[in-house]
Amino acid sequence: MAILIDPPGPEAHGRRWSHLVSDTSLAELHAFARTVGIPERGFEGDHYDVPEERYRSVVAAGAHPTPPRDLVRALQASGLRMQKRKGDKGVARVLGVEFVDGTTADIDLIRSDREADGSRVFAAMAFVRDSAGDHVVVHSIRRDEWGAPGGWREEGESVRENAVREVREESGLVVDAADLVPVGYERFHHRSSGGLWREGRDLLQVFVVDLPGRRPPLSTEHADTSDRRWVSWGELVGLCSDQFWWPLVAATLSPRAG
């Protein structure tokens, strides 16, 4: 087990940066980052960005200086490398998530203001906010949990049509597909076969949509949900912060997110 760091690279955003990784465990990497005072916002899904002025102190704390090419090889060999498009930001990898259809997956949570590859998207969810920043939550009968409206994509639907239909069916609200703003996606690495999963369909698109006015009424009867309500951000945290997808929401929709 080792923590590795490469020398500061070419300048980006007016500074030079190193990359800090573990060759074994994200838990080990997070623990080391906390020890040396690297902020959580520096995490990029499989590594921490470390500014040049911190390089020597991080090495002194126990990180092993490693050439960039060797660091990438070690990260790939560890299985921890997170593939993402340039400009996207890895938020977290959640391991061993179990689903009600009996399948299990490791899931990458990726922040992005660009829509994911539609040919790979199997489902969509949309966080609906009003003018005061309150959110719609629905209680899924199938999963027995609270969350944003969302679900599986139907044959012939676009990804945006998928999200619009789920919002309507689960809350009664009608939103315009053009108003959906992509904030990220989830990538599923399936550990088991069966269930509803299909080869090549591994992404869930996450949108946010803002509505005018305060708390427009929600309808009361929907087959897939047993309850639905408007909640404040604090209430949303209380209902949903134990869900595997929460780190992506906190990184993109929190009143402090930027």
Q: How would you describe what is shown here?
A:
The structure is a single chain. This protein is of the alpha+beta class. The protein has two domains: 3-78; 90-252, Nucleoside Triphosphate Pyrophosphohydrolase (Alpha-Beta Complex), CATH 3.90.79. It contains six helices and 14 strands. The strands form three sheets. Strands 6-7-12-13-8-11 form a six-stranded mixed beta sheet, with helices on both faces. Strand 6 and strand 7 (104-111) form a beta hairpin. It is elongated, with a radius of gyration of 20 Å.
What structural class is derived from the secondary structure elements? alpha+beta
CATH architecture annotation name of the largest domain: Alpha-Beta Complex
Helix percent band: 10-25%
Strand content: 25-35%
Tally of extended strands? 14
Mean residue pLDDT:
92
* Largest beta-sheet details: 6 strands, mixed
Distance between the termini: 34 Å
CATH topology name of the largest domain: Nucleoside Triphosphate Pyrophosphohydrolase
Radius of gyration: 20 Å
Entry keywords:
2 domains; five-stranded mixed beta sheet; 258 residues; six-stranded mixed beta sheet; alpha+beta; 14 strands; 6 helices; Nucleoside Triphosphate Pyrophosphohydrolase
Describe the secondary-structure layout:
Elements: E1 3-5, E2 11-12, E3 15-22, H1 26-36, E4 48-51, H2 55-60, E5 64-65, H3 68-78, E6 89-98, E7 104-111, E8 121-129, E9 135-140, E10 145-147, E11 150-152, H4 159-171, E12 181-190, E13 203-210, E14 225-231, H5 233-240, H6 246-252
Parallel strand pairs: 1-5, 8-13
Antiparallel strand pairs: 1-3, 2-3, 3-4, 6-7, 7-12, 8-11, 9-10, 9-14, 12-13
